[in-house]
Specification:
The protein is mainly beta and 323 residues long. The chain folds into 2 domains: 49 residues, no CATH class; 184 residues, Vitelline Membrane Outer Layer Protein I, subunit A (Aligned Prism), CATH 2.100.10. The chain has 3 helices and 18 strands. A hairpin with a 5-residue loop joins strand 7 and strand 8. The longest helix is centred in the N-terminal third of the chain and has 14 residues.
């Protein structure tokens, strides 16, 4: 006896339409009567409309979506937050995200951490270096050191020739022609040093001459460092009872800049800058300022018969001065 089951059931699973066979005969197929499911080639008008809508949205030829290349909203995505879509989706590093994403650099006109200045350019010599360090304008002094009196054998009164806040680039004075060109007047040659556009500039700084005892006629003399970047760092010479010959030793002021630590100052090797006097007497021990120090003041001693018998210097630690 064949029972006819007239029940139609439509299942929509994963976008596909399935239908139970309305005329299923288990005796004809020889299989168990378990309600086998087959794919149907037909569907109701309602299921057809649904199937068409689904296939259209998945068809690559009719899809309205496109790749995002500018970070802005695309067709079919107007329901998304535009600010969410636009953040971080760009190929230009200078406009990526917010301005906080732009990495600061020397020359951007903003003094960032690690910079001493930033004048908006990469030029040096204008007060702010190409590495954004404040450029020095000169030198200033630190601690002092005094040498012993060196020279001849005579002792006598002491006279000072002091530069104070300025360095010395040597000594000047007069030679007594009547006394075999002995030093009868000595003066520290004080100078003002400025550092501009990467160069040292030297200006004279007037200082009173320290007179000892001069008889006419006299002739002027000087023993000075020849270069604007040099200062006096030592002296030597020859002497008998008095100083007969005086030599001044000079060192170059060397300014360096490290991209991380900024500007620094070093002194070059001492070299003979100048000498004055006569070749007689015995060479006396050379006096050198300790490393990193330069001569600032001179103190002379005169013997019973006049003239320069001994000399002493005061050396000061030198360092860069900034505005």
């Amino acid at each position: 006896m064949t029972r006819t089951i007239v029940i139609g059931l439509v299942l929509l699973v994963g976008g596909c339409v399935f239908e139970l066979n309305p005329e299923f005969d288990p005796e004809a197929t020889g299989t168990a009567s378990t309600g086998a499911v087959t794919t149907s080639s037909t569907s109701t008008s309602t299921s057809t409309s649904t199937s068409t809508s689904t296939s259209t949205s998945s068809d690559p030829e009719t899809s309205t979506s496109s790749p995002v290349t500018t970070g802005g909203p695309t067709s079919g995505s107007s329901s998304l937050d535009p600010t969410t879509e636009m953040s971080g989706a760009t190929t230009d590093d200078t406009t990526a995200g917010t301005t906080g994403d732009i990495e600061p650099f020397c020359g951007d006109g903003v003094v960032d951490p690690g910079e001493e200045c930033d004048d908006g350019n990469s030029q040096k010599g204008d007060g702010c270096s190409a590495w954004c360090h404040t450029e020095p304008i000169g030198i200033e002094f630190g601690g002092d050191w005094a040498s012993p009196y060196i020279g001849g054998t005579e002792d006598g009164p002491v006279f000072p020739s002091v530069c104070g806040a300025s360095p010395s680039d040597g000594v000047t004075g007069h030679l007594d022609e009547a006394k075999l060109k002995r030093f009868c007047a000595v003066r520290a040659n004080c100078v003002s040093l400025s550092y501009t556009e990467g160069q040292w500039k030297k200006l004279p700084n007037v200082n009173d001459e320290a007179l000892i005892a001069c008889n006419e006629p006299v002739s002027p003399w000087q023993a000075l460092c020849p270069d604007a970047s040099q200062v006096a760092v030592g002296f030597g010479g020859k002497a008998s009872g008095k100083i007969e010959k005086l030599m001044i030793f000079c060192a170059e002021l060397i300014v360096g800049e490290d991209p991380n630590t900024g500007f620094s100052l070093a002194l070059g090797e001492p070299v003979l800058g100048a000498s004055v006097g006569v070749e007689q007497g015995v060479e006396f021990p050379k006096v050198d300022c300790p490393m990193g120090l330069v001569i600032r003041d001179y103190y002379g001693m005169t013997g019973p018969s006049g003239g320069l018998s001994k000399l002493k210097v005061v050396c000061s630690q030198v360092k860069l001065k900034f505005p």
